[in-house]
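Below is how a single chain appears once it has passed through the pipeline. First comes the sequence as given, then the structure the pipeline wrote out for it. We keep one example in the README because the format questions we get most often are answered faster by looking than by reading.
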Amino acid sequence: MGVTLGSTPSSGRVRLAEIVGALSLTTDLATGWPIEHGLRRSLLAVWLGEELGLDAAELSDAYYVGLLGSVGCTIEGTLFAEYTSDDIAASARTGTVDFTSPLEVAAFAVRTFGAGQPPLKRVRSLVSAAISGNAGFQAVCRDVAVRVGDMLDIGASIQQALAQCHERWNGRGGPGHLTGDDIRLAARIFHVAHDAEIYHRMGGTEAAVAVARRRAGKHYDPQVAERFCAVAASLFHRLESEPIWDAVLATEPAPVRWLADDEVDGVARSIAKFVDLRSSYTLGHSAGVAGLAEGTARRLGLADAEVATVRLAGLLHDLGRAAVPVAVWNLAKPWTETEWIRARKHPALTELVLARSTALGHVGTLAGLHHERLDGSGYRGVTASSLPGAARILAAADAYHTKLEARPHRSALTPEAAADETWLQVEHGRLDGDAVRAMLDGAGHAPAPRRRDPPAGLSEREVEVLRLMASGRSNREMAEVLFISPKTVGHHVQHIYDKLGISTRVGATLFALQHGVIDENALATAK
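Resulting structure:
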C-alpha cells in the first residue's frame, strides 16, 4: 500500500499562534460568524491596544484574548440545542443583541427558541430557556474559556481576561457582574473589538463607530471606546489591506512561542477533546481514532514522521463538525437532504481550517479525506487512485471507532461486531483491506480473512464498474470517477453483461446485492 504525504514539521517548527489561530477559525464555524472573524478581532484588539499605549505584556494578553474570547461559545451551542434546531444560527444572532436590554433579549428569544415547533412546544422551549437564563449560558462560556486557556498554557492573566469576556463596564454582564476597572483591560478591549468587527462587516466604519458611541459607559470602557472611535477609520483600512492570517502571525507578540512535537500533540489532543464535547455521542472519538490510526501506520511500516502526521490528522480530523448544528448530530431520526448536505461538508471544513497554516496544511489535507471510500462513495467523491495510504488508514480507523460508539439511532457495537462491519466494507470495495487488517490486528481481533475473489470471474475493475452501475451512474459519470474514457466503461459494462448472462442494469444490480458486491445501505447512500 503506497503512502504519499508530507511529514510533520521538525521539532519546534509549529507556532502556538498557528494552533490557536486554527482553534479561532473553528470557533467561527461553531458560532456562525464569518470565517476569520476571530483573527480580525485579534488584530483590531492589538492595534487598538497600541493606540492606547499598552506595553508588550498587555498587548500579548489582548492578542490571545482576541483570538480565544469566543471559544466558550462553541460549547454554548450544546445549551442552545435544547431550545432550537440550529444552535449555530442562534449563536450568530447573539452578535447584534444588547443583552442588557430586556426588550432586545425578549425579541431574540421569541425569534430563536422553539422556532418551527408547534405552539405549545414552542412556549415550553421559551419558558425553559428563560429559566436557564443568560447567566447560565455565560457561566458555560466562562468555564470553557478558562479551561481552554489552561490547556494551552497561555498564562494566568489571559485566563482571567477570558473569564471576563461576557462582563460589562456597568456591571450588567455576567457571570461575575464585575464593573469598571475590575474587568481586565484585555477583556475591555475585546468587547469593543468583537462588536466593531461584526458591525463593520454589516455597515462599515460608520456602523461600528455608532455602536461604540452608543455603548460607551454601558457595555464598554468609555476610554477604550473613545479611542476606538478616533482611530476606527485607520484601523479598518489597515485590516482590509493586509492578508489576515499572515498579519496575525506577524502580530504575534514577542517572543514567538514555538512548540516541540510533543507539545503539538498535547495541544491538538486538548483541542480534539474540546471539539468532541459538542455532542455526548463523540466524547473521546478523536483521540480514539488517532490511537488506532497511529498503531496501524506503525504496523504497515510507515516512517516515524508519517506516523506522527497520521496521529495528528486523527486528533484534528473532526474540527469541521463544529459547523454542523448539535441538534443534527443528536437526531435519532433519519437526516433530511439538507442535514445530510451540511454534515457531509465537515471533512472539507476541517481542511479549510488547517489550510492557512504552512505547518499544518498537509495535516488538514489528510484529515479532510477521513470519510472517503475507494469506490468514490465517500463524502467528497474521491476515489482509490487519489487516496494515499495514510488516508486509507485514517478512514479505516474512523469507520471502526465510530461503530464502537453509541449514536442517537443505535447502541454501540461490540468490538467483534464493529470488526465484522468494518471488514464488510472491505468486501464491498470501500475500505482498504491492508489498512483494515492491520488496524483490527492492533485492536486485538483475530486475523481477518483475505479478500475473496470476485464472483462470476469478474475482474477487479469490472467489480468497480458494477458497483457504480448499481448506484445509478451513467457511463460518463463512471468514466469521471475511474479516470478512464466512456468508451472503455462501455466495454467493461458489456463484459459484465456477458459474464453474468444478463442484459440490463437492474439485473446487474440484483446480482451485486445477491453476491455481496454492494449492500442495500451502500446503495441507498450512493443515491
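Strands lie at 14-15, 258-259.

See the next section for the split statistics.
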